[in-house]
Amino acid sequence: MHQIALGVTLLFLALLVAMVAALAFEEKLHARKSLITGTAAVIAVFLAEVFHVLPIGPVVNVFKEKLHIPVYIAGIEWEVIAIIVGSSLFVDVASRSGLFTWIAIKLTKRSGGDPRMLLYFYSLLTILFSAFLNNVTAMVIVGSLTAVSLERLNRKSLLLAFLLVEGFLTNVGGLLTLISSVPNIIVGQAAGITFLQFMLKSTPYVLLAAVATVLLAQMRYSIPSLQSDEERALAKQRVSAFDENDGIHSPRFFYTSGIMAVLLILLFATTSYLPYLRDLGLGFVALSFGILMLWAFKHEVGKFYSGLDWDLVWFFMTLFVVINVMEHAEVLSLIGSAIGGIIDLGDVIGSAGLLWCSAAASSVTDNIPLAAVLAKVLKAKETLPDSSLWWSVIFGSNLGGNLTPIGSASTVVAVTIMHKHEIRMSFIGFIRAALPFALLQIILATAYLLLFL
Amino acid sequence: MQIDEFESQFKSALKEHYTYGPVSIESCALITDLVGADAVRLTNIVKRLVPELPGTPYQRTERLSWHTLGGDRYSSVKSMLAEVEKIRPDILVVQRNLKTDPDDLVCGLSNYLDALTQTCRTPVLLLPELTLDQLEEQISEPLEVMVQTPHLVGDSSLINWGLRFALPNGRLYLVHIENKRVFDQYIDIISRIPEIHTDIAQDSLREKLLSLPSEFIEQARSVLRSKEPMIDVHGIVELGHRIVDYRRLIETHNIELVITYTQDEHLTAINTIAYSLAIAFRDVPILLL
Prior knowledge:
The complex is a heterodimer.
Chain A: H1 6-24, H2 26-29, H3 33-50, E1 59-60, E2 66-67, H4 71-74, H5 78-95, H6 99-110, H7 115-132, H8 135-152, H9 159-173, H10 182-191, H11 195-220, H12 229-239, H13 251-270, H14 277-294, H15 301-307, H16 310-328, H17 331-343, H18 347-364, H19 367-380, H20 388-399, H21 409-420, H22 427-452
Antiparallel strand pairs in A: 1-2
Helix pairs in contact in A: 1-3, 3-16, 5-14, 6-8, 7-8, 7-9, 8-9, 8-21, 9-11, 9-21, 10-19, 10-20, 11-22, 13-14, 16-19, 17-18, 17-19, 18-19, 18-20, 18-22, 19-20, 20-22
Chain B: H1 3-13, E1 27-31, H2 36-49, E2 65-69, H3 77-87, E3 91-94, H4 111-119, E4 124-126, H5 132-138, E5 144-148, H6 156-166, E6 171-179, H7 180-190, H8 198-227, E7 232-240, H9 242-252, E8 257-260, H10 273-280, E9 286-288
Parallel strand pairs in B: 1-2, 1-3, 3-4, 5-6, 5-8, 6-7, 8-9
Antiparallel strand pairs in B: 4-9
């Protein structure tokens, strides 16, 4: 890598700061994420060429063949894109089978309409869905059901409390597996953490944080439990009106989706141990399952392709281009030396400091660029795979999202559902409501990190 | 993935269920403007319309007490309501055009009936607009009973009342007619919105409008097959013109009693479809709940 002048590095740092600031004010700018990162990518690549930052030339593959690939394409982490596209396709097709609504309604009926039981079940559902689908889909499914079922039970006054808890738990559930959130995928790939290793380390914390969050919500919002037999009978009758089979149009597809979902999770968990697949990686597994599921709708696959969140895909692709340029412009080294100051404070304060800094940063801006930058920085510092620093970034970037309504995509969805049901929730109002929960989760994460990781 | 999409899925999964609950009538009051022997004669005719139930299939015998409020018992709406309040019957059987010239009631039911349907929670069985002799000839125990309302879904009481009159071995028609004129108006508006595919909207809307009452009726039929096997229950769900199509169904199936609902939390009784039907169908008894 050739020497870059400090002025050039600072120029690119300014561009990165501007992009992150624009992402933080995405709502005010009325511009989609992909447009912001796309614009930053265009400027970054152009400036990189002007200042000779990027090593322009043919790319050499493993067969020593020289390929003419545009320099900005080579910088994209295609494994991450493959996981996101494959998983999104799988979840989108599988959701048409009625599988997720079936599980959600079954649990609703099992609660007997008791608000406290409903809180427990919906919390469990939120964690499982955000762990194995993604946190936005989890929030959309559980949040929508919450609104409908609480209305059915004449308990709409509890909707705010339920949506807040579910929003907070999506980010806790997002810590359960390697594929539960994009920061996990990015940091996990960079650190070389396998699916199983990730889950074994994260599960105790997820359980602890989930129980603490639900108990705190139960106390703060006085979620009642039904007392009399009459109340219980009425509530049970009301929720029994839900028909879990309503969304199942083809039992065969329903069962196939269930089996495929279990298989996908098992393969994700064992990919790093299986021959062939261990080399092809999680992205291949996700894409394969996405494509296999599309056979259920073979005549209308276009609908699913257009249903993909292209804003998100473009966001990742252009973000990786920006980060690649920043790496060559030595911006990441500069950030790394700043973070190095925190890390050098020692195992205890360093790890805890990185976690809290990551949480604070991801509360005001997107946690994905943050995770991408920090993962690159830690990798450049040759951080060992079993270092707790990786987990500082994972915990911080996921849990920081609970501090503000713009901190994560799922809390944005929670606030959207609130507004849809005419619940007023200001930016400050959300922070006031969220602060005790977010602090509790971050304190627990810090303790867990220091004691067990 | 849209929030709306999942909310719709969950709302669609929410099915209103029919709850079987036998209706018991122990006290019945006839309000007429006839007096003396004519009032007594009318009471005896009307007893055929509201017969006492035999011991089966409800497994109990009703002891029905009758009260006759003849034209000499009240002189104003207020005094009539006071008399009704004293009796507190389970059902009121009311003669049409109470103390009003029929020629003055082309588009209404009379002040007395308006007051009963709007202020009184007691079901009102409105007699056909016939002379005493015609009533004597035509009124019999109803065997063909039609329960109809735009709010049939989720309303078990309507079906239970229908059941009370169709017992012990009559035929019960559960009818739901969706207003086609309103449907067409919405489709016309949708056809002017480029973002919404008109054909898909039309098919989906029609399918959902008709499937909800169809599913409810089917579920009610399945309950009644086990609870009241002697009653023949039919379901009719259509998109059409309410007055015209109800009239057609009444004539096609020789309906002897129509049961409909005037209670609507958003409308006063006088503004409900039941009120319009009561004015339009003057030749068949109508029970207004």
